[in-house]
Write a structure and sequence with these properties.
single chain; GNAT family N-acetyltransferase; acyltransferase activity, transferring groups other than amino-acyl groups; GNAT_dom; Acyl_CoA_acyltransferase
Length: 161
């Protein structure tokens, strides 16, 4: 990761850059930008959500972000809902920094478990390898969850082990 990159809490001023990033990475279509703005904007302002960005210190570009929210029906369990890093900056350590920042924040408030739902599709091999290298265990599979042939893989990490 560049020494000019800050890992920090997201603010409302980051929202446009976050939306540009998810559109650029083709997670959503350009005509869905308003919907993405509404949904992610709500998450940034939600006090129960931890939303972290990676951004250069001198620009408004967002290089990556991660957000997690509590699972309401479980004891101190959080779900990482999205982890996105700009493809031009992937594999430079930003993903690890974002994951570690979430883990630190959750540990600091005595939370115990993080879960992540991932796709079994081969295009997500690298992100699953990242999760595993950072101590996340694949605990289960739901076949054909995302679509036929694309399973949900459930990852977890206990924060106090």
């Amino acid at each position: 990761m560049s020494s000019f990159t800050q890992i920090r809490e997201a603010t409302d001023q980051d929202l446009d850059g976050i939306v540009r990033l998810v559109i650029h990475e083709e997670m959503f279509a350009p005509d869905q930008a308003d919907m993405v703005t509404d949904v992610l904007g709500d998450k940034i302002f939600d006090e129960d959500v931890i939303f972290i960005v990676a951004a250069p210190s001198v620009q408004d570009e967002i290089l990556g972000f991660i957000f997690a929210e509590p699972r309401a029906t479980a004891d101190r369990v959080w779900e990482i809902v999205m982890l996105v890093v700009h493809s031009d900056h992937a594999h430079q350590g930003i993903e690890v920094e974002l994951l570690q920042r979430i883990e630190t924040e959750l540990t600091d408030i005595d939370q115990r478990l993080i879960v992540i739902d991932a796709s079994s599709n081969s295009e997500f091999d690298q992100i699953r390898t990242l999760y595993e290298s950072e101590g996340y265990d694949c605990e289960g599979r739901v076949r054909d969850y995302w679509e036929d042939g694309d399973d949900l893989l459930a990852y977890r990490k206990h924060l106090f082990q």
